[in-house]
Amino acid sequence: MLSDLNDKRALITGAAQGIGRSIAELFVERGARVVLADIDEEKVKQTAADLGAATLPVGCDVTDGEQVASAVSAAVTEWGGLDIAVNNAGIEIAKPLVETPDEEYDALMAINLKGVFLGIKHETPALAASGGGAIINMASVAGLGGVPLLGVYGASKGAVIRMSQTAALELRDAGIRVNAVCPSFIDTGMVSRLVDPFETATGANFDDVVALKQQRLGTAEEVAEMVAFLASDDAMFITASHYVLDCALSGSLF
Amino acid sequence: MTELLKDKTAIVTGGAKGLGKAIATALDASGARVVVADIDGDGAQQTASQLAHGEGAACDVRDDKQVEELLGWVTQRHGPVDIMVANAGIASVAPIAEMSQAEWRSVLDVNLDGVYSSVRHAGRSMAGNGGGAIITMASITGFAGSPLISHYAAAKAGVISLTRSAAVEWRDHGVRVNAICPGFIGTDLVLDRVPEFESALGVSLNDLIAQKQGRLGTVDDVAPLAVFLASERSRFCSGSAFVVDGGMDAALV
């Protein structure tokens, strides 16, 4: 039997919608209490209302260390500690590299990479005080290989994989495991926004590419299952890894 | 809680002891019917007798015909096989310069050819019966250089590659194929070779393991990952290698 998440206290960033929300739903179903952090305060309140009493919404801009620290404090104050942190908040740019404005590059890196850095930094003391725990960082298969239009996004996700490895080594003695999750194309708003620019830029039909390389779009629930596994005590010896879910997209040449 | 693998039929090769036994036990505890296959038929029977829904079978995975017959036997008794854990493996210790071709061949025969036969016959059966999950036992030695076990490491790299190709070939038939890559786990396969390893390398394996992966892994560190990969919870995972090693493979120093 696989373990559930009973008695676990979790923080999820970018939890108002998409993959983050699905992770929150599954965590609650498996018995965890969850702080839902999101920059969209209204939406995250609604998500918390939908998910029920085991959740607590907080407004949080992950590019601001103080706000990340406050989100961690919310878990400690409300639930008495922190066992699991999911650094999930992220944005995309779907543009050729040479057409990407500098300020868009900076904004993406601030959220997707510095946000993870600040998460690791501010979550660690609370996780260590709880006797150890698990950090799961949302990366992507775009961090493992090239994807037209996703140059900046992929660079940020590649960096998240690398940072997760080093964090894992540095935090092993504190009993904190750090892993990254690498989904391919998942049925979320982020991917639906990619379709038009991708087809315009490559001349390829997006659905055909998906069918050829990963059979179908993945679902946010499927990503959540992997995050929940890595967060659970069943993954006690798993750290510094990046777990791919992509229906063989990254493992095949064609 | 509903049983995750209820009504599923699984085969675990090399299931009589060590990692295979732990995986067979975990699959059984998750509700699957488990056929414990091993070259040691008596050992397979004995392990199977400790399971709620276990059966033992003698099978030498080096013999493609025996693997084919195993699949046929299980299918006839229980219907289509849903889960194959291609786990059987052996190891020996020798520097490349002193390794005979026979020693090289003996490890490749079991650890690569045996996985090929297990994957091939399970995948063929599953592809014609609505799908299934194949889990191959690889190793982090499939990624990084490993002195004294070059044959073992080469076989495991081959297993990872075979896993990817099989995943693509059967993607549209509902057959998922994934590899598990453990670090150093405290099984006989590892522990029996510690003295040879230490004398040849001039280091203490305990020190090396403490430094590189925190502690020696246990079979129970690996078994839940096999259950996850066998279950519907991982239904979008295929063609991947999943590392469970306390961080060893990721560390450069």
How do the helices and strands line up, and which of them pair or pack?
The complex is a heterodimer of chains A (254) and B (253).
Chain A: E1 9-13, H1 18-29, E2 33-38, H2 41-51, E3 55-59, H3 65-79, E4 84-87, H4 102-129, E5 133-138, H5 151-171, E6 176-183, H6 189-202, H7 206-214, H8 220-231, E7 242-245
Helix pairs in contact in A: 1-8, 3-4, 4-5
Chain B: E1 9-13, H1 18-29, E2 33-38, H2 41-49, E3 54-58, H3 64-78, E4 83-86, H4 101-127, E5 132-137, H5 150-169, E6 175-182, H6 188-191, H7 194-201, H8 205-213, H9 219-230, E7 241-244
Helix pairs in contact in B: 1-9, 3-4, 4-5
Task: Characterise the protein shown here.
The complex is a heterodimer of chains A (254) and B (253). Chain A starts with 8 loop residues before the first strand and ends in a 9-residue tail after the last strand. Chain A is globular. Chain A is of the alpha/beta class. In chain A, α5 links the parallel β5 and β6. The mean pLDDT of chain A is 97. Chain A is built from 8 helices and 7 strands. Chain B has 253 residues and is an alpha/beta fold. Chain B has a single domain, classed as NAD(P)-binding Rossmann-like Domain (Rossmann fold). The longest helix of chain B has 27 residues. Classes of the chains: A alpha/beta (254), B alpha/beta (253). Chains A and B meet through α5, α8 and β7 of A and α5, α9 and β7 of B.
